[in-house]
Amino acid sequence: MHNLKQMAATLNVYQEHGFTSPEQLEAAVDTAYQEMRQTSGELKALETKLQGKKELQQQVLAYDYTLYDKDTLRQMDGGQLDAPELPLSTAALKICEMHDLGGQSIKYAPLAMIETLQEAAYQQMQEAAAQAAVPESTMLPDAPEQTLDEYPMPDPMLTLDDLEKCGYRDGDMLPLSKERAMELYERDLTVYAVVDGGGAEMLFDREEFDTQAAGTMYAVSREEWEESPEFDARVQDRLNHQEERERAFLSHEGDCFAIYQVSENDPQRLRFMNMDWLNAHDLSVERGNYDLVYTAPLPETGSIDGRLHKLFEQFNFHRPADFHSPSMSVSDIVAIKRDGVVSCHYCDSAGFQEIPGFLPSNPLKNAEMTVEDDYGMIDGIINNGSKATVAELEAQARGGQPISLMDLADAVHREERDKKKSVMEQLRQSPKQERKKTAPKRSAEREL
Questions:
Q1: In angstroms, rounded to a whole number, what is the distance separating the alpha carbons of residues 12 and 37?
Q2: Structural contact between residues 62 and 80, judged by C-beta atoms closer than 8 angstroms
Q3: Closest listed residue to residue 175, CA positions, set 192, 150, 197, 195
Q4: What is the pLDDT of residues 65-117, one digit of tens each?
Q5: pTM higher than 0.90, yes or no?
Q6: Which residue in 4, 282, 327, 382 is deepest, having the highest Cβ count within 10 Å?
């Protein structure tokens, strides 16, 4: 009976609120729950927005300040004092305390000083911008000294003189620093320590390096170094520096020689071909088909022909250790520079034949080879210079690029000269007009 009364009361509540079934009530509860979640999200967003406004309010109320030097009016420092609750006078004292300025002599500045400070700040900004716009020094670094091919030492920082100063003078060892000696030791090369005023002691363990006295000179066998892959790689790398080495040869002050051999890329199959074969096939000897393989001083005295034969003998039977190219043979070219004059000689089946034009023999062209970047511009005129037109230079100036007034003047002069030449050429090529000769009119008196 009690349950029936409870059910009747529940039904009355449903009907009072407009519900006719439990399902309808459940749907209403779900809708109310979703609305509550949406309202909760909106409240959280509003709280976040209010918090942001609070932080903004604190920032607005904070004191921004800038410190200037009294005498020069230059800006020294600045910042923000996050204490909006402080009055202005107290905030000023606090800022002075923060920067160890003291606050006994604080005075209010007139408003007119603000304009003065603004002008000083603007001038300071202009000076900083002008200083930033100044280009860095255009001085080029010293160009590396161009030298003839040198023996690749295992330690480029040391020479044989350094080893001899330690007392070792046998000539079969090459000097090493401790760091370089340990590096070669790790590559399985035999390393020695120079001890007892010139003796060489082989090192068997890495720990032995630590037992040597400070300043000990180390060494490696010349023969073992010359058989190492690194030595061969250093020699072969010369082929990657053709132009630099050729400039070094042409600019060398003393007598010297250079050996050229047909490049590995030899589509015309010129290697080992004599001069008769070249002439029969209408082929010429050109620098582009050759590699510069070796350069060295020429200490021998005597005629050029005698020097050529000695070089042929040397590079067949007594080749230098750092010459890893084939022995001198037919089709090789030997360039000799003697007393500043360069001559090139083709190794033929019997002797040598001089070939002009392979390298510039003009001393002026030799000098040009040392400074000209483009071998296609070798014309006997040093520093060919810019050939830009007036229109091109004006376009560069309008684009904000710096131009040389000398280049502009040269361009104007060159174009005026070319214009005059063009006019004169047109006058020369224009057909000459024949002048018609007319008989003089007879006077009336003569007619009578």
A1: 30
A2: yes
A3: 192
A4: 777 777 676 777 777 777 777 777 677 777 777 777 765 556 666 656 666 76
A5: no
A6: 382
